[in-house]
Amino acid sequence: MWKKLALVIGILLVATAGFLYYLKSTLETKVIDFARQQGITLAAENIESDFLSQKLRLNNINYKIGNIELENINAEFSGIRIETTPNPKVSAVENKIIFRFNNRSYKISLAKIALTQQSKSHYQIETEQTQINQSTRFDLNGELTKKNFIFQIKEKNNGELKITQNNQTTQISGQNIPTNLIQAILSAPTMIDGISNFKADIERRQNHYLGRINIQTKDGVMNNLNLLEIVAQRLPINYQKDELAQKNINTKFDLMDSEFTFTDKKINVQKSRIITKDLVGSGEGEMDLDSMQCNFIINLQTKDPKYAKITLPLRFYGDCRSPQYKIEITKDFRDGLKKMLKERLK
Fold it and tell me: Which top-rank group of organisms is this from (predicted)?
């Protein structure tokens, strides 16, 4: 009897071990197959899987999207589940992905991720509570093919992100994208909050990238700068006194649009425009991404017709997260002030 029981237990153990090995092999095969479809060179030594703890680790992987290469990717997925019908699907919870791009480090955390194969080279991806570096969390729905990625950001504004590849450049466009997500991808501090539309072209040059971006943000906030308060200290413009009484350190704006380039070291703003309830401004400047130091010039004009001929040139400098400022006394500023005084004295 005991021999038979031992034999049955032995058979069950072998069958269980064989089944776990089959699941492990199936998972690794699916991961390698998906990687191959996306142009990723992935070998068994890059994968660690443990079905008892339902964990999968990917180590030291490089991934090329068009001319963009993500380097030293290390990822960990927990709570792995595999479904085979109606379409092959792999899902996981409590996930994190770390990688380098453009000589900078990135961390993506995801509460949940699911990858479903629709056809040989067509995949659907769904994520929940996704965060890139310090961005706000968002849910995502995406379609992945060999050359194009389309993502729906499931947030209150329902954003859409498209990535299109060719041999020379990678084009990225976004509609209704959280502005702090764009800043997180650029490794820039959160200077602006809002929802943005943008278009970007990214070109690889030797071991770094050059990007060109046009971005427009509506109904947003410029953090840690109150432009109205600064201007009101210099000009007796008409404004709602209760606005200043609130001691708000930020600037609400109706519209901000900018054109800039970026490398791994610097963001260079060629031109930027801001429109608020009381002010109109235009400017240019640069941001050092290593030191987080900014140097911007913005020329502000009030919407009050009495002072419309005066342009107040402000230079913002120092820490981008809380910059200092000073007035640049230029010839145009002096001439505008003289004209205003002459008209007031008539």
Answer: Bacteria
User: Tokens at residue 41, please?
Assistant: 């060179």
CA geometry: angle at 267 spanning 285 and 264, to 5°?
155
Is 34 in contact with 28 (CB distance < 8 Å)? no
DSSP string, 265-299: SEEEEEEEEEE-SSEEEEEEEEEETTTTEEEEEEE
What are 98-135's pLDDT values in tens digits?
888 888 889 989 899 888 888 877 888 888 998 888 78
Pairing of strands 293-302, 312-319: antiparallel
Cα 109 versus chain centre, distance: 13
Helix H or strand E segment including 144: strand 138-144
Under the banding of pLDDT at 50, 70 and 90, the label for residue 4 is: very low
* Residue 57: closest CA among 42, 37, 71, 39: 42
State CA 239 to chain mean position distance.
Answer: 35
Query: What are the two backbone dihedrals, phi and then psi, of residue 241, each rounded to the nearest 5 degrees?
Result: -60, -30
Q: How many residues are there in the chain?
A: 346
| Tokens 């278009």, residue located | 199
- Give the C-alpha separation, 21 to 42, whole Å: 20
pTM of the predicted structure, to 2 decimals: 0.79
